[in-house]
Every structure is written in C-alpha cells, then in structure tokens.
Specification:
- It is built from 16 helices and 12 strands.
- By secondary structure, the protein is of the alpha/beta class.
- β10, α11 and β11 form a beta-alpha-beta unit.
- The two termini are about 35 Å apart.
Length: about 450
C-alpha cells in the first residue's frame, strides 16, 4: 500500500500509530510490519492480534567484553529478539555482521514468525546477532565472543524455549560453540538432549544431514513448485544472483545441476558475467579460498549497473536486506524475482517490479528450507535419531510443496500478489491458534 506521510509524522497505519511509531520509509521494521498488517487488513484480523504482532514479545540487548588476541578488551553489542511463540518455541538465526542493529533484527524475527507459520512448523519467530565483521576476528577471538555471548543470553535460550541457528556470518562451528557453552551451564539429566538448544550444528555433533544446503535446496524446491505456472522451465532457464555465501552458492549449484545457466553474480567484492554460464561449483571453491567472487577466471568483471541490467529469466537476491530498491529495480531485466534472502526488496522496489510485470516469489516461502531442516534437526536430537539425507530432502520438499500451495490458494482467494498471499496464509494459521488458546488471563 502506498503511504502518504512525512518522515517523523505518526505512522499512517492505524495500529502503528496507536503504538506511537514515527514514520520512516527507510526503516526495515516498519516496512516489514506494514506489509504484514496490510495482509491482516485483508483478513480482517481482530485488532488485538494486529497489536500483538506489531511488536516482538521480547527484545534483548546485551553488551559484553571479549579479550582480543593482542590483549586489548573490546565491548560488543549482541541482540536476541523473540517476536512470537504462539506456535511453539522461538526459532531463528544468529547473525554476525557489521550492520546488525535492533530494527533489522526485529524485522527478521517477524519474518521468522511468518516463515514458520506458513510452513506450519511448531515453532515461533526470533532472531539475534552481534554487530561485528567476523572476518576481522581470529578463530580464537570468534570462539571467545560466541561463548561469552551465549553465556550472556543465559536462560533466554533453551531447547524448549528459544533455539538459535546459523545466519549470515555464522556457521556450523559457531553453533557447536554455542551448544557446548549452553551444555556446560545446563548439566542436567538430559545433557545430550540439550544439544537441541541450537540447530545447524556440525554433523558429528548433533547436526542433520542436508542442513548445510537446506536453504538453497528449499529455494530450488519452491521454484520447482511455482515456475511451471509462469511457463519457465528450470532446465532451460537463465538466472543471476546477488550473494555467493551459503544460500547463493547452494542455490546456484542445485539450479545449474538441473540445466539452468548462471549468467551473472555480484557480491561485496564485485560482479562477474559469462554469457555461456559461470561454473557454479568452481565459483564456490574460489569464494571459499579467496573470500569473494572477484578474480574468478571463469567470468569477466562487469560493473554494478551492467549486472542489474543483465537479461535473465530469474533474478535471485541471496544476500542482505533492501538490496533491490527504488534506485536499481527499474534496471532489472527478468521475469521472476526469487527472494532467497530475507526482505531483499524494498516496498518502493517492489512497486516498480510489480508495475513491470515481474512476479516476486516471497522470502517466507522461498527461504524456509533452512528453518524447516532446523526443525528436523531439533526433532532428531530430541528423539536421538539420525535421518538419511534422502529422507531429509524428501520431507523438505513435502513441506515446501504444501507451503507453496497455501500461497497460491491465498493469492486466488484474495486476488493479491504472492507476498501478501504468503502473509495471509501465515496469519490465518496464527489467528486460528490464538482463537483456540485465547489471550491470558
Ligand atoms: N537463519 C535462517 C533463516 O533466516 C535459519 C533459521 C533457523 O534455522 O532457525 O531462516
């Protein structure tokens, strides 16, 4: 919905106005919650539910010191935002990135609530992180930081309460340190079950087969469900990508395995292009050894504008939020935009793209693969089981298929775009549970 308001005015959305939000069109939290509330309006959700969902239940911020290798102490800022747990324990990643800030973490926590609900997982939504560039720290420093942050969170995380996972800048090793720290503080009868306090752990320490590639795999399953209706054949499609971390590189490898052509990639080190297709596997090894796509021999360097203008069937942002915005949306030359990242398109960017007839497959459908396999890992830990990769993939595909169907049905029912439809389907599920449980007391 187009909002007519000046920066600093009370927010034009009735619920956000009631909560005292000052309008800021660039604020990611306001952008996210505004879109969710538009869907709530479409569903005619009760006022009290809109109020509850408009703010997270808990926002934790902690400052903690860590000794660096040179003996100097540095103070770090860590966050954990728990948005909603009506469906089950809070769930969501821990991000280590220099841009980590409260409003962004709040927004990502809302998206986790929506994502888990759309996939009908018995989990709520949370997100956290530390404002740090992990590449600027040694492994020892990162380990001390992770352990100190985990201990600062104390009982605010827990197997049945809030379950972190990897996100940007964190990985299976980070999760192993988090789980180990937590287990040292929670030496109960169920010590080994308490590994389930985080997911995305290494395979040898309670991780699940298929978790590392899970988000990329989920993106591809979602595309397999949605692209045929748009007359796009994955085996013949061309695509470009922003971001070549875990999600981007897995998505690229799985798509090219099926015959798609990867025309262009951009990351924090530059942009590259190859008309005949970039080798996704070789590019992944190059990024692991050099830290970015720059200097990859299998493609030519291009500038940012040329990257955005590259003609492809599918454009996949798989990096930070708000990358596709008013400034560059009109440059895109694609038929479908697949949101592998969380909130990669701003509302202004979205209006331009929808106006150009581009279909946007929304993030809460496309990138739910990570949290879905996290849910499988949590289940395996609690039941002391190990599932084969085939079983994990098959179940992930089933969940993704069902979620895609819910989105398509909601889009038909409400006659709206797919993002609004995805939020409608997620909210309907949450609203039913609130109706059954009621509001305490
Ligand atoms: N960080 C991932 C996400 O944003 C995974 C979260 C999880 O597995 O809990 O969806």
């Amino acid at each position: 919905m187009i909002r007519e308001a000046k920066a600093g005015d009370l927010h034009p959305n009735g619920v956000l106005k009631e909560l005292g939000f000052r309008y800021d069109s660039n604020n990611l939290y306001q952008q996210t919650i505004d879109a969710v509330l538009d869907a709530a309006e479409m569903l005619d959700l009760p006022h009290h539910l809109r109020l509850i969902l408009a703010e997270p239940k808990t926002e934790l911020m902690t400052h903690f010191p860590v000794r660096l290798d040179n003996g100097v102490y540095r103070l770090f800022k860590g966050y954990r935002v728990q948005h909603n747990n009506i469906l089950g324990p809070y769930k969501g990643g821990m991000r280590f990135h220099p841009t980590v800030a409260l409003d962004d973490i709040k927004s990502l926590a809302v998206l986790m609530t929506m994502k888990c609900s759309l996939s009908q997982l018995p989990l709520g939504g949370a997100k956290g992180g530390v404002q740090i560039d992990p590449r600027s720290l040694s492994e020892d420093e990162l380990r001390r930081l992770t352990r100190r942050f985990t201990s600062a969170l104390g009982d605010n995380i827990g197997t049945d309460h809030d379950i972190p996972a990897p996100d940007m800048g964190t990985n299976a090793q980070t999760m192993a340190w988090m789980a180990d720290t937590y287990m040292n503080f929670h030496d109960s009868q169920n010590k080994h079950q308490s590994r389930a306090v985080v997911t995305g752990k290494p395979l040898k320490f309670g991780g699940s087969f298929g978790r590392e590639k899970a988000t990329g795999q989920g993106v591809v399953y979602a595309m397999e469900e949605c692209l045929p209706a748009l007359d796009i054949d994955i085996a013949k499609a061309t695509f470009s990508l922003i971001g070549y971390g875990n999600v981007g590189s897995w998505t690229a490898r799985l798509l090219t395995e099926q015959g798609s052509t990867l025309k262009a990639v951009m990351d924090h080190t530059g942009a590259i292009y190859n008309d005949k297709g970039l080798d996704a596997e070789k590019l992944a090894s190059h990024v692991v050894s050099t830290g970015g796509i720059a200097g990859f021999e299998g493609g030519e360097a291009i500038d940012e504008e040329t990257f955005y203008r590259t003609q492809v069937d599918i454009f996949i942002p798989a990096a930070l939020e708000q990358m596709v915005c008013r400034k560059n949306a009109a440059l895109l030359n694609c038929r479908v935009l697949v949101e592998a990242a969380n909130a990669p398109v701003t509302p202004a960017g979205e209006r331009i793209l929808l106006g150009q007839g581009v279909t946007i497959l929304p993030a809460i459908l496309c990138n739910a693969g990570g949290v879905t396999v996290s849910y499988f890992e949590w289940k395996q830990n609690l039941q002391a089981e190990t599932w084969e990769e085939k079983k994990v993939d098959k179940r992930l595909q089933k969940y993704t298929r069902a979620a895609a169907k819910r989105v398509t049905l909601a889009a038909e029912k409400f006659g709206c775009d797919l993002r609004t439809a995805a939020y409608c389907a997620a909210l309907e599920n949450i609203a039913e549970v609130y109706k059954l449980r009621g509001i305490f007391p």
